[in-house]
Design brief:
There is one protein chain. The chain is of the alpha/beta class and 460 residues long. It has four domains: 134 residues, 3-Layer(aba) Sandwich (Rossmann fold), CATH 3.40.50; 115 residues, Hect, E3 ligase catalytic domain fold (Alpha-Beta Complex); 46 residues, no CATH class; 123 residues, no CATH class. Helices cover 46% and strands 15% of the residues. The protein starts with a strand and ends with a strand.
């Protein structure tokens, strides 16, 4: 009998600190669950991975019984729970609720489960309302969650300058933040500021992080909420002006914005070029294993080159690979490697052109039941013995996967590889076609600090 358990908690804290998840799993296994599917996610979400996997297994007739500790483990929505139970009933799956034993197939059981699911949704909505009221009170009191660098929180969770001493510099954090603002105005680029403050003070900022920090309204003395837009949420920002001591004056802010705008004009590319070129996402740094990003030279030729993404990062994430390797050189060497390894790719394509015939589990299950009935007769009748042997042979035949080779597809693939093994073939492809072919045959391309290119192919 195929018995699955389903356990769910809403947060990682519940799973780790309160041990709620382990308690559920232990109870489910003690009740006979041979396998337990687990989600750490809100019950109001219908995108829970293991919950949807459970429904899929039920629809594929891979489950006989499902065990849960409470009905609200299935979800916190009446509709979600109702739909799940409908799937269980349709596929003759028994639902066992440890804390409230009910029969989902009976009218009384159906009524009881709907009452419990309604209560689960009521509790969820009530909690949501309490959280909303708590957040509104939090904002009315001008409280702050995570203070930006240079600030801390007082006992009422409001922002105040951080007067704690920074060990490396001997200055307090508020003074150090003022120094960083001055460096942004003085130095040519934010990258140089990041490198300087890391080497001098061991303060870690990324370029984008430093840019966002300098524009933070908290540094201007304001407490703001909903400033950053979130997908699917359209809410106007709430800004409370002059709630604490400012780090940046309006004149300083204007000077910083002018500086950032000037730097933007000298950037090699105003628009993101991520993913719009051959070998996108496949070029890796040998030294740190990180991706390499594409950039353009400032010369009028706009030459494309690749550099390790971790080279610009300070601290432990910094990579010493400063080499800028031309993208076209990497592509050329990858094509050379493909031409050289083209014969070996035929075997790879042959494997890809092979499909497996899926066994008919419903028919096997039907034949197995018939076989069990015949064997319980314990008859010496030759006809029954022959029937048992025939059914067993048929079950064995259906249980053996069959390989089917797509001959037409394989021949087309071979012709494709033969053509691709000629270097002249690649000269007539545009970037879109190159990208498509590379994604099919190239696993990754490693580049080291000397510019050496080493492509790896998807060979068997």
């Amino acid at each position: 009998m195929r018995v699955y358990g389903y356990a769910r908690v809403s947060t990682q804290e519940q799973a780790e600190e309160f041990d709620a998840l382990n308690q559920q799993i232990a109870r489910l296994k003690a009740s006979g669950a041979t396998e337990v599917l687990i989600d750490i996610e809100s019950g109001r979400s219908d995108a829970r991975k293991q919950f949807n996997e459970l429904l899929k297994l039920v629809q594929e007739n891979q489950v006989d019984e499902i065990i849960i500790t409470r009905v609200d483990r299935l979800g916190r929505s009446v509709i979600t729970i109702h739909k799940a139970i409908e799937v269980f009933v349709k596929h003759n799956v028994n639902l066992r609720v440890l804390d409230a034993p009910v029969d989902a197939n009976s009218p009384f059981g159906w009524f009881s489960i709907n009452q419990m699911s309604g209560l689960a949704e009521f509790e969820s909505r009530l909690l949501s309302q309490r959280v909303k009221q708590g957040n509104e009170y939090f904002r009315e009191q001008l409280k702050f969650c995570i203070p930006p660098f240079g600030y801390t929180k007082d006992k009422n969770h409001r922002l105040i300058p951080n007067k704690n001493i920074h060990e490396k510099s001997g200055k307090n954090y508020f003074e150090l933040a003022k120094i960083i603002i001055d460096l942004i105005l003085e130095m040519p680029s934010l990258k140089e500021v990041c490198n300087y403050i890391f080497n001098e003070y061991e303060v870690v900022f990324s370029v984008s992080g430093l840019r966002d920090w300098s524009k933070n309204l908290a540094l201007q003395g304001h407490t703001a909420y909903f400033v950053k837009r979130k997908k699917g949420i359209n809410r106007e920002p709430i800004i409370n002006f002059n709630t604490h001591e400012a780090l940046i004056t309006p004149a300083t802010l204007e000077a910083i914005e002018r500086k950032l705008l000037t730097n933007k004009k000298y950037r090699s590319s105003r628009k993101s070029t991520r993913g719009n070129y051959p070998l996108a996402g496949l070029i890796k740094c040998v030294h740190c294993g990180g991706n390499m990003y594409r950039n353009f030279s400032r010369h009028k030729t706009k030459t494309e080159y690749m550099r390790c993404v971790n080279y610009t990062k300070p601290g432990n994430y910094h990579c010493e690979n400063s080499k800028c390797t031309r993208l076209r050189e990497i592509i050329a060497q990858t094509i050379t490697g493909l031409c050289r390894n083209a014969p070996n790719l035929i075997e790879y394509l042959e494997n890809q052109s092979t499909t497996i015939q899926v066994t008919n589990t419903k028919e096997i299950e039907k034949l197995t039941n018939e076989l069990s009935v015949l064997r319980t007769l314990r008859s010496s009748n030759p006809d029954i013995i022959t029937a048992i042997a025939k059914i067993q042979t048929k079950i064995n035949a259906l249980s053996t996967p069959i390989k089917i080779v797509d001959r037409d597809g394989l021949e087309n693939a071979k012709r494709k590889i033969v053509i691709a093994s000629q270097a002249i073939f690649w000269e007539f492809l545009d970037d879109k076609e190159l990208k498509s072919l590379f994604s099919e045959f190239v696993e990754k391309v490693e580049v080291d600090s000397s510019g050496t290119v080493n492509p790896f192919f998807k060979l068997p």
